[in-house]
């Protein structure tokens, strides 16, 4: 009579070990892949900013039109989409800025979790285009964002900045605003 109990006990232990292995295998595989340096690749449309920069800790100063400094860390967690125009922001630039503002609107109830900051000389028809309704305009007097600013006329690039001031992604001049919208919908939920 001892033999059937031992056999049943061994079968139970084996089942327990198999269940534990099913749960442990993905954890072990993730640890091995991380140790090897592999990181999953997403389908983000923006370019990762490397090395990472934190505009708050760098004390990067952007002065708003009313003379107040831009707070990279807001009173509540909000990402910032920074638009940097190339020389002579005109029709194509304004069209891209409008599409960027529309991307914010498509976030619906989460739209308040994204702030829009335009850094540089506003386009000539900024008032007529309603830009002031969506964008806060500021100046980078020390030109600390020059590396991200496009050099081609009538173009715009964008930076997505985390609520703690860390620059996450760069959207270089000529980027697809619908790709930016998709990225925003993934990040802001």
Structure description:
By secondary structure, the protein is α/β, with parallel strands linked by helices. It has 2 domains: 1-40; 47-187, Glutaredoxin, CATH 3.40.30.10. Helix content is 32%, strand content 17%. It contains 3 helices and 7 strands; from the N terminus they run αβββαββββα. A 7-stranded mixed beta sheet has the order 1-7-6-3-4-5-2, covered by helices on one side. β6 (156-161) and β7 (167-171) form a beta hairpin. α2 (91-105) packs parallel to α3. The N and C termini lie far apart (61 Å).
Overall number of domains: 2
Biggest sheet descriptor: 7 strands, mixed
- The secondary-structure class comes to alpha/beta
Series of secondary-structure elements, N-terminal to C-terminal: HEEEHEEEEH
Examine the coordinates and then state which fold CATH places here, giving the name of the CATH topology of the largest domain.
Answer: Glutaredoxin
Overall strand count: 7
Name given to the CATH architecture of the largest domain: 3-Layer(aba) Sandwich
Quote the beta fraction. Answer: 15-25%
Strand order, main sheet: write it out.
1-7-6-3-4-5-2
User: How many angstroms separate the termini?
Assistant: 61 Å
What global shape is seen?
elongated
How many alpha or pi helices?
A: 3
The rounded Rg comes to 25 Å
Q: Could you give me the name of the CATH homologous superfamily of the largest domain?
A: Glutaredoxin
Mean pLDDT: 88
In the predicted model, the low-confidence regions spanning at least 5 consecutive residues are: none
CATH C-level name of the largest domain: Alpha Beta
**How much helicity do the residues have?**
25-40%
């Amino acid at each position: 009579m001892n033999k059937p109990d031992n056999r049943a006990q061994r079968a139970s232990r084996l089942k327990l070990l198999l269940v534990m292995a099913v749960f442990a295998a993905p954890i072990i595989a993730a640890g091995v892949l991380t140790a090897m340096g592999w990181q999953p690749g997403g389908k983000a449309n923006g370019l990762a900013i490397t090395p990472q920069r934190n505009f708050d800790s760098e004390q990067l100063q952007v002065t708003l039109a009313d003379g107040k400094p831009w707070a990279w860390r807001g009173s509540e967690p909000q990402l910032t989409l920074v638009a940097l125009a190339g020389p002579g922001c005109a029709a194509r630039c304004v069209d891209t800025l409008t599409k960027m503002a529309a991307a914010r609107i498509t976030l619906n109830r989460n739209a308040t979790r994204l702030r829009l900051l335009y850094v540089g000389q506003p386009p000539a028809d900024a008032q007529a285009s309603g830009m002031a309704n969506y964008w806060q305009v500021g100046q980078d007097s020390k030109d600390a964002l020059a590396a991200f600013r496009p050099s081609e006329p009538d173009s715009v690039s964008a930076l997505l900045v985390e609520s703690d001031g860390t620059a996450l992604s760069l959207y270089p001049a000529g980027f697809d605003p619908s790709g930016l919208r998709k990225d925003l919908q993934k990040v802001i939920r």
